[in-house]
Amino acid sequence: MSDITVINDSEQSSLVTNGLAKNGELYLKAAGSTDAGAIVVYDSGVWRTFANEAVSFVNGYTLSLDGTDDYARLTGMTLSGAFTASFWFNPLSHAMGAGDLFMTKGYDSSSLTSETDWKLDYANGGFRYSVYDRTQSWATKLEATHTFSFSANTWYHIMITYDGGTSTSGMGLFVDGVSKTLTTATQNPSFTGNNSTSATAVNVGSSSQWSGGKLTGLIDEVAFWETDQSANISSIYTGTAPIDLSGLSTAPNDWFRFENNTDNSISGGSGSASLVNGPTYSTSVPS
User: Fold this and answer.
1) Which CATH number does the domain housing residue 146 bear?
2) Closest Cα partner for 143 from 245, 43, 124?
3) Given phi > 0 = left and psi -120 to 50 = alpha, else beta, which region is 235?
């Protein structure tokens, strides 16, 4: 059997012109092309396309953040109470610095008290995960930390969870499928929960008001559930490459794939994405 070569639709004619296509050879349509993941056979001068369910999930692009001012803005999701956020991250050659922001829900105006729900950033040599009670003062929050060092040019799967309660024990952090111990930094006794009342945006990599570090690296497959998915981590992370999350028994409510398409999301979700200040797409993907 011939090896499978990845092609875009536009490359089919050039393969023939350049004498590279031979009868019986197989080609796999690339992400972004019509019928991405389909098998194409060159047969006596004719391209024949066959759907292939086994390769229907194709991950061809990731979002590249330059650490200067660009970020992704995800809107249309309430995520009030319990939630889960899952994504893949590669720092490239960047050494993580204080305040490098993975993502935050809110943090879009100077009135942070009334419109910030949660955030995950890198501080004091590791993860800092905060959940705010937006009905009270800015200091009314749950905050927990975990010491962690990233290796250069390495992909990591990161997932945070929150059960909707009033204790840091209800917050979870998973790296490559492994639960990480969170140390309580703040557990304000008057905290009543993540009381989001509107669909504030989730900002990935920075935000309009973020004064800390701007994230440098690659982000991919950002997914959200409106429930605590801690118990399902073994289904969400299954190895060194992303999976088709829509096939899970509990699929994400919104899934932003960053596949260089119109809104970067799968069908069925209420959210949409916009890219701010020019982040680009990379073909370096988790594998």
Assistant:
1) 2.60.120.200
2) 124
3) alpha
pLDDT tens string, the chain, 287 residues long: the values are 455 555 555 555 565 556 555 655 555 555 555 555 566 665 656 666 655 555 567 899 999 999 999 999 998 887 888 999 999 999 999 999 999 999 999 877 665 555 788 999 999 999 999 999 988 887 899 999 999 999 999 999 999 999 999 999 999 999 999 999 999 999 999 999 988 766 788 999 998 888 788 999 999 999 999 999 999 999 999 999 999 999 999 999 999 999 887 666 665 567 888 999 999 999 999 99
Number of neighbours of residue 19 by Cβ within 10 angstroms: 7
| Burial call 196-231: b when 16+ CB within 10 Å, e when fewer | beeebbbbbbbbebbebbbbbbbbbbbbbbbbbbbe
Q: In terms of domains, do 38 and 72 share one? A: no
Structural domains counted in the chain: 2
**264 and 182 in one domain?**
yes
Q: Are 35 and 58 in contact (CB under 8 A)?
A: no
Let me know whether 152 and 242 are in one domain.
Answer: yes
Residue-number span of the structural domain to which 9 is assigned: 4-55
Global pTM?
0.80
Residue 179's SS3 state is strand
Q: Is residue 128 part of a domain?
A: yes
Calculated CA dihedral for residues 125, 127, 265, 198, nearest 10 degrees: -130
User: Quick one: 148 and 267 in the same domain?
Assistant: yes
Q: Is residue 287 part of a domain?
A: no
